[in-house]
Design goal:
Carbamate kinase; single chain; four-stranded mixed β-barrel; eight-stranded mixed beta sheet; alpha/beta; 293 residues; 10 helices
């Protein structure tokens, strides 16, 4: 009986959040090594959470990654993955593999997982949704010099039409993070930036970044040092201290841009935690790190 009462208490705790967010759009960035887990429960856990959001009339929009799968495919093709400042060097052969893995392997798998659990999802290759400009990065060794990463882009425009059409029909859009460049070529883009630009374009209420770390850590070597609440005004100091570093920088910068554009709240959660999305959205304590204005 006590277990049943506890379950009822959990539902009642979730109720005000369900009421608050009914009809709202949430963008979920789905990435991290948990996508490759051999445990089917881990792989489908996020899909089950997405189906729950649909059921309570929240409109989820998924932007996914797939870096580890790309690395494996490159190695099978005899190519060595190389990175500069956290960005993948992407030549002609590499971008073809990126496009194949993200848009024609991982994307349909996520769509199938959601649909198999009773949800409704539709996949979109990134170039159908995103436009980008070529990304040049600053050379840290020689300030003022720009580095050419090849076919790496920065999302500049989101074609919201197909996404809004899905939302009107109660369908979850699932989008890969590739984009069409100004030259008509397909470019590899940072999925975190793509998700943030999607949230901005859709005027989403919430943006959730899922990865394989517990949140933003005060000490990167201590998984128990999660910063539960972080204000935008604190971000630059954490960068100077090296707490926000490397691959976390574009993630946090894109989160700040989303907040400044009107997204209410951005969360960083650990996708390895069962039902992390639901715990973050529908409980008083939440999990991971919440970035607020």
């Amino acid at each position: 009986m006590q277990d049943l009462i506890a379950k009822a208490a959990t539902l009642l705790e979730a109720l005000p959040y369900i009421q608050k967010y009914s009809g709202a759009t949430f963008v979920v960035k789905y990435g991290g090594s948990f996508m490759d887990s051999p445990d089917p429960a881990v792989r489908t856990g996020v899909a089950r959470d997405i189906v729950f959001l649909e059921a309570v009339e929240i409109n989820p929009v998924v932007v996914h990654g797939g870096g580890k799968a790309i690395n494996r495919a490159m190695e099978q093709a005899g190519l060595t993955p190389r990175f500069v400042q956290g960005q993948r060097l992407t030549d002609e052969a590499t971008v073809a593999i990126v496009d194949e893995v993200l848009s024609r392997r991982i994307n349909p798998e996520i769509v199938q997982a959601i649909n198999s659990l009773g949800g409704l999802a539709r996949g979109f290759p990134g170039p159908e949704i995103f436009r980008c400009r070529k990304l040049w990065v600053e050379d840290r060794q020689q300030p003022g010099r720009k580095l050419d990463l090849g076919y790496v882009g920065e999302v500049t425009h989101v074609n919201t039409g197909p996404i809004l059409e899905c939302i009107e029909q109660g369908i979850t859009p699932v989008i890969s993070p590739t984009a069409r460049g100004e030259d008509g070529h397909v470019y590899n883009c940072n999925a975190d930036v793509a998700a943030a630009q999607t949230a901005i374009a859709l005027r989403a209420r919430r943006l959730v970044f899922m990865s394989d770390v517990p949140g933003i850590l005060r000490n990167p070597d201590d998984p128990d040092s999660v910063i539960p609440y972080l204000r935008v005004s604190e971000v630059e100091e954490l960068k100077r201290a090296g707490i926000i570093d490397r691959g976390m920088i574009p993630k946090v910068d894109s989160a700040v841009a989303a907040l400044q554009a009107g997204v209410e709240k951005v969360s960083f959660v650990d996708g390895r935690v069962p039902h992390a999305v639901l715990l973050e959205i529908f409980t008083d304590e939440g999990v991971g790190t919440i970035l607020v204005p």
